[in-house]
Amino acid sequence: MVQTSNLLPHRFVISGRRLVIAVPCVWLLLFFLVPFLIVLKISFAHTRLGVPPYTPLWEWTSQHTLHLSVTAANYLFLARESLYLEAFLSSIKVAFISTCCCLLVAYPMAYGIARSSARWRNVMLLLVVLPFWTSFLVRVYAWIGLLRNNGLINNALMGLGVIHEPLVMMQTDFAMYIGIIYSYLPFMILPLYSNLEKHDLTLLEAAVNLGATPFKAFLQITLPLSLPGIIAGSMLVFIPAVGEFVIPRLLGGNETLMIGRVLWDEFFNNRNWPEASAVAMTLLLVLVLPIMIFQRYQAREAGAGLHH
Amino acid sequence: MNHTRSRLLPALLAMGFAFLYIPIISVIVYSFNNSRLVTVWGGFSTRWYGALLADHRMLEAAWLSLRIAAVSATLAAILGTLAGLVLARFGQFRGRTTLSGMASAPLVMPEVITGLSLLLLFVAFAPLPFVPDERGFTTIVIAHVTLTMAYVAVIVQSRLSSLDESLEEAAMDLGARPAWVFILITLPIIAPAIASGWLLAFTLSLDDLVITTFTAGPSTTTLPMMIFSKVRLGVTPEINALATLMITLVAVLVVAASVLMARKEKSRERDVHLAQSTGSAL
User: For a 10 Å CB count at each end of chain B, is N or C smaller?
Assistant: First the structure.
């Protein structure tokens, strides 16, 4: 009996270490990677009426021959219809502007928190994290109550006599930008904070002692040192914002083209699964570079920032 | 210069926090409004909470969402902890880069892509045995676990890499098997990280709309799906009441958890301090 383990070839012995590695790997392969391959496959299929609403790419015919049916029509349609190109460009524009606005709002906040006393710092961090934990849908919904024609902002402004007619803010790009910036702000503040908190303040003191103005010291020392935090935060905002669906749908207007909305309509309203798959694959292609940048910085910066 | 900046920074901070909290506070205030017109104040009332509790479809959806969130948060906590442990402590192995990529990509992946790809997976595999024919509870749980385990993995991994390995190494040197080292040493240290990971997974699952809509069958309606379809028709006082309940629940949980963890951390630091001073006294 003692000999059996030696008789087994080594590779058949499942060590605990291998098992621990295998469990999360298998789950993610099966439910994260394989699904993308299926999307890729279906993006080359034809649409048909039926269940499922796409044709199989390969089929064994009754004569035992393999019948292949692959089409690039879905991608050609994407390239030909200006609607899709416009939607992609407009999504990237919206995500880019939102990321910049988030950075402008978040940087002073993260800086202020990082330079406060330890006691205040923990309270303020909790205040930043709290909205991030509360329902995203509820927070977007809250803005409808503020921005509507007879909402809180218009009522307040008319009550003060600043305006006489309500400002139309709902279903505009303005409302959509507010919603995106508001929802993604904590994702920008946290990585920035975790970077700024680690800075060595003696560097700034030295610079000021050597005659630099505080502003110049900030530009030449703090800002370059915080670049990894800026990049990590920007990627955490930009990438999901490009594919955002809920905020443009609830706050934005009908004329605002966002690719997430186009994909959703293609799938649920037109039931064109192959076209929706082609849109998803193209979107993924657009986002590959930002995702790779995010992954490089994620290990170093954002990791520490996501928990409080 | 220094003087103006010292006043500018608190002002910017205050404005930032006002931006974050005014929408939330306005929802809470208006949930106690007696008037059906959401923006006209008609006196204090809790009638919308009563209306909410009488809405059976809403309660059913809420119960379903809570069950989905509890199951998927638990699975995500287990899988995410394993992934975080492997990435932080197992050194180099074949497939490490792939695992680290797969474990962090769901954090930023647009939800429409994740949702669509999981739905197409479930449809493609539906003819196979052991795969549920009808989409619903199980498929939603699988989708939520895949999304939220990434958050748990990041939290656990960053917690582990901020701790030095000397305790674990000491236990190994004394002859403890790796599994026992994990249970007796590593697990107690990362327990707060796993707990906050679980909580985050729970709230993310409870809140998810896009991925859920893709992976839910036609007969399944979760709470966010219910809210979304109502909100599209306009603001209603019942939704204000529901939103207030959700905000309160999460705020109480998160504040309690962080106070508890801060206290634990303090007593742990005291123990370490005590151990060190005893050590040097001997």
Answer: C
